[in-house]
Amino acid sequence: MAKLRIVDLTKRFDEVLAVDKLNLEVAEGEFVTLLGPSGCGKTTTLRTIAGFLYPDVGEIFFGDKIMNNVPPNKRNTAMCFQSYALFPHMTVWDNISFGLKMKKIKRQEQKKRVSKVMEMLGIGELAKRKPGELSGGQQQRVALARAIVTEPQILLFDEPLSNLDAKLRVQVRVEIREMQKRLGITTIYVTHDQDEALAISDRIVVMDRGHIEQVADPYTIYRAPETSFVAGFIGLANIFEGTIVARDGNRYTVEAPFGKIVIVSKDTKVSKASKTVKFIWRPEDMNIYTDGAPNRVEGKILQAVFMGNITDIFMDVNGNKMRAQTDESRKLIAGDLIEFSIPETAFSILRR
Amino acid sequence: MVSKDITLKVPLHLIQARRLKHFYLLLTGFFMIILILWVGIPILMAVMWSLVDPKNPWSFPDIFPPSFSLAQWKYVFDYTNIGRALRTSYSLAPLAVFLSLVLSLPTSYVLGRKKIPGEKLFMLVVLLPIIMPGMVVALFLSRVFTAFGLSQTFFGLVLAHTLMSMPYMIRVMTTSFQAIPQDVIDAAENLGANTFVKIRDIFLPMIRPGLLAGMIFAFTVSIEEFNLTFVIGTPTFETIPTILYSFMGYNFIRTNASVVALLMMTPNIIMLFIVERFLKSDYLAASLGKM
Amino acid sequence: MKEKEILPLHFLMLIPGVGFILLFIGSSIFTTLVQSFGLFSITGQSEFTLENWKTILQARESMDSLFFSLKMGFLSSVGTVVVAFPIALFFRKGGTGKGILGSIIKVPLFIPALVAAFLILNLISYHGMVNTVLMRLNLIDEQLRMLNDKFGWGVVFIQIWKNLPFVLLIIMASIASIRDDTIDAARNLGAGYWSILFRMYVPLAMPGILVSMILMFIKAFGDFPIVSVAGPIYPSSMAGRMHIMATIYQEWDQAAVLGVIIIVTAFFVIWAYSRLAELVKGEG
Fold first, then answer.
1. Does the beta-carbon distance from A59 to B14 stay under 8 Å?
2. Looking at the predicted structure, is the pLDDT value of residue B8 above 70?
């Protein structure tokens, strides 16, 4: 029985279709991230799960219970907001115990749970302070504590790390993930930061303009993107379309705009009837050409950006723009000719 | 598939959401009616009373006056001191506004842009004319005025009106001055502006909305001022509020009072529209709320 | 955005504004205080005495007036805030018609207090419209005495009518500072509508509520014109009594005593309201 089931969710705001027939199932204890650019509908979906928005069409199930008509304060979900949304007029302790107070948990029990959570998150000494006196990182932890102390069925995160500086972001996201694993709460996490999504999710739901592009674990999302949007949104990508000249099992000889290549597909996605195929590979998978290496590609360097551990190269291959990344120690400058090889298994074939 | 069965009927949550929207709309409409009555009826009554034909007095059980006439208006202008009161009120107000402006500017500048020790205390002092109970101040200030020969003088009244206008003037202008970003001033200085230029080209234009708001408040405060004027000015001087008061006292003539009330109200209502149009009401709320 | 450097010039610039106010208010309060103890007396000799205080405090009328004025103060301040608060909440979410509603509701703000007194007085007086309509509808047999009534309801109603927009603006500004996120978070954690009202809106809007209550209390407690026009014959308000004492009986020293009592009470109430607000806010 899935912990959370979203069926055909559709939500409109005046003229704009924010979410369009979204379907998703989340298992108990899973950490699922909704990833996408602004306006893709991820926050709308999250708020619908929380109960702040009514679906125009579709249902939300927690287990086998339909939740559409259940108001947000009765859903037993807990949300961490981007702005933390701490109650400015209450102390940290009162903030954290608020949810328990609403559930009419006894004082003694409240005390036990709040203390435990505060210790878990390392904010024990902040109990008597007010939110205005805390740093961003501390406020974040208090917001987290406030959410998990209520032992919710589903934990919701709305871009909780956006307001923290880069270093803190990396540190806190790991803490969030460890906490979640330890407690085993089903979690839905919204972000537009692909690094964050890749780093901490069990599965990533990539969204664009109201619909789902792909749902898969981070490795698959990165290594086997199914659409050009997913390929381009996460990591760097060289995307091309070519004609299938020959095929032998899952080995395709493709005439690409920049030359002839051989793709060994990881799965049989290409139908027998297809004449053309759309594919991508990642710049970092390209290797400096050595004799006998597959898929030789020669181009003129337009720009070579030395970044320390790698050099980012923008090149022109027979009139096609291509990007490569290599740890080649040789100094590379614009105007030089350079040869690369692309491993046959480095490609992903795109659905669209 | 479960979803197909459920979504065939109209979903309950949609009905609920629609009902909620209708409820709010109804509430707003209901509220608007109540509001129009709440505000409109008192004013309407005054208008009707001022138009009662003296030959056909209006009394129970008539809901409306039997006939209308402008006789009362003529009467009030011919036989009472309303003309004098109007002149006094409308000559006091501009003077009070001007004086409070001049006195408030330097103070607001300092309070708004410099960190003064004891700032909170000064702000409190500024608010005293509003906080202190009016009639107490009026009675005993009149004593002081009498001692200095200012009682029953026009100048005394100007001083009194200025006193009451200043808290509003200072508060609004302090907020205005505070709102000017230091960056802008620094940039001006960097480009060679001296004090005079700074005042003329940076400060004055940027505080103009606040200035305007303050002047409108000050003007309104002066027109409506009663306690001080009553004690210090009467009987030598009459302003619209004091003359209205006299019509409501022993010689309560409803019709006279209606005319004067309307006369007193109209410039204010015009002011209301000016304010709504050209200023944000945030100014009013912000400056008062910050107290 | 405050500059650090303070020159003596700056203090000088404070004088026109702050100094002016301090001079006039200060001399007024000083005179009140001092005259209550018999000094600077205009009539007869000036000497320090507690006679005036004794006379006033022993008079039955004084206590009745004080009680009446306190009643006016509390009822007006609490009444206006209680009416304004739900309206402010209603205005929190934008919507159709809110603009027009906003303008209409602001009208009494621009109507001078005396005029407001008259307008309402007109309506609720013995021969006013309300009575006429009620009689015609046969809801009452005899006209109601809503004006100059012993309790003072007429005065309270006028105060609420006149001051509602003023209080509404202040409270609305306070409520506007409450973020939607905060309310969402409370809902999310299980708070029902009553909880949200009393644990979120009221404490967070407390600064505005407090300011309006204080200002309204002082206005209503120390009011002169409205009470003298719409209030009962007996008891008179503190300000009314003080005025008669001074101008009619020429007992300025005793009037001064009443004046001091008014000032002290006003400040005491401000202090008490602030303490109460701290309590409510702290409770959360």
1. no
2. no
Same domain, A175 and A253: no
Chosen domain end from A174, A205, A232: A232
User: Whole domain around residue A41: which residue ranges?
Assistant: 4-232
Q: Which residue has the higher pLDDT, A69 or A270?
A: A69
B286 versus C76: which is more confidently predicted? C76
- pTM to 2 decimal places: 0.79
Nearest residue in B to A57, CA atom: B7
pLDDT at position B62 is 63
Cβ B244–C169 below 8 Å, yes or no?
A: no
Residues of A in contact with B19 (CB under 8 A): none
Closest by CA position to A326, among listed A286, A297, A292: A286
Q: If you average pLDDT over residues A339-347, what whole number do you get?
A: 91
Q: According to the model, what pLDDT value does residue A209 have?
A: 93
A208/A222 same-domain check: yes
Distance from CA of C198 to the nearest CA of A (A): 13
More confident residue, C177 or A157: A157
Q: Which chain C positions have a beta carbon within 8 Å of A98's beta carbon? A: 186, 189, 191
Distance between CA B266 and CA B246 in Å, rounded? Answer: 20
**At residue C61, what is the residue type?**
E
Q: Where are chain C's structural domains?
A: 59-283
B13 → closest Cβ in A7, A8, A54 = A54
A8 touches chain B (CB under 8 A): yes
**CATH number of the domain located at residue range(s) C59-283 in this protein:** 1.10.3720.10
Count of structural domains, chain A = 2
Closest CA to C209 of A89, A31, A63: A89
- Alpha helices in C137-247, H assignment, sequence order: 153-176, 180-188, 193-195, 202-204, 206-221, 225-230, 238-247
Contact across the interface for B7 and A59, Cβ inside 8 Å: yes
The CATH number given to whatever domain includes residue A71 is 3.40.50.300
Count of all residues that appear for chain B in the document: 291
B7 touches A at CB < 8 Å: yes
Q: Do B226 and C224 touch (CB under 8 A)?
A: yes
Cis amide linkage into residue B66, ω under 30° from 0: no
CA–CA dist A154, A30 (Å, integer):
10
Give yes or no for residue C127 having a pLDDT over 80.
no
The C-alpha of A171 sits at a distance from chain C's nearest C-alpha, in angstroms, of 25
User: Which residues of chain B neighbour C118 with C-beta distances below 8 Å?
Assistant: 46, 244, 248, 257-258, 261
A115 plus A165 within the same structural domain: yes
Are A166 and A296 contained in the same domain?
no
